[in-house]
Amino acid sequence: MWGKPILTGQANIVINDPNGNVTITEGQTNNVSIQPLDGNSFPGNPNAIQQDISQTGNSISANLQNPVDLQVTVPVGANLNLNTGSGDIIFDGTFASTGTTQFQTTDGDITVRVPSTSAFHLDASTNTGSINSNFPNIKIQDNASGSGQSVNGVVGTSSQSQIPNVVIQSNNGDIILNSN
């Protein structure tokens, strides 16, 4: 397990996992915790992920050399950039008030659950999967190639002049975007 406090400001979290599932939840503090899940951790020592994680100020990067399923707890509104090779991504939380949150996987599903009051610009696409959402104003379009779908537009309404950008890309997988 890796865990450190974010001392001041907004947290920026980057995770590159070659073939693992990544589950992100929001914590109640400014701490970040990155923990391998049982059954899919580095051979021998599950604490070996510490060598692949670095922190500079409020930015934390986890560039994993081996595939591992992760449970990650982040502060509310952290900026996220998650990339997996053949794993699923699950996010349950809120987006930062500005900036870009990015979820990418080559062969996996991406599930994003945010409050129904959320407002953000969404750019989502999948090459050979489908996009499902319970947000009422999402307009899902089929790709010209006949497989896959995409969405590009604003989700929700906001009185703020700026809203966050959310980029979701899955090459071979489904995208599920729901309010919680």
Task: Tell me the fraction of residues in β-strands, as a range.
Answer: over 45%
Q: What are the segments in which pLDDT stays under 50 over at least 5 consecutive residues?
A: 40-44
Order of helices and strands: EEEEEEEEEEEEEEEEE
Number of strands: 17
Largest sheet: 9 strands, mixed
Number of H- or I-type helical stretches: 0
Q: Report the helical percentage.
A: under 10%
Distance between the termini: 28 Å
Overall mean pLDDT: 88
Instruction: Name the strands of the widest sheet in spatial order.
Output: 5-6-2-8-10-16-12-15-14
Q: Quick one: overall form?
A: globular
Please tell me how large the radius of gyration is: 16 Å
What structural class is derived from the secondary structure elements? Answer: mainly beta
Walk me through the structure.
- By secondary structure, the chain is mainly β.
- The protein has a domain at 1-87.
- It is 0% helix and 48% strand.
- It contains no helices and 17 strands.
- It has strands at residues 2-5, 12-17, 22-26, 31-36, 53-56, 59-63, 70-74, 79-84, 89-92, 100-105, 110-114, 120-126, 131-133, 141-142, 149-155, 165-170, 175-179.
- A nine-stranded mixed sheet has the order 5-6-2-8-10-16-12-15-14, with no helix packed on it. Strands 1-4-7-3-9-11-17-13 form an eight-stranded mixed sheet, with no helix packed on it.
- The two termini are 28 Å apart.
- 32% of the residues are buried.
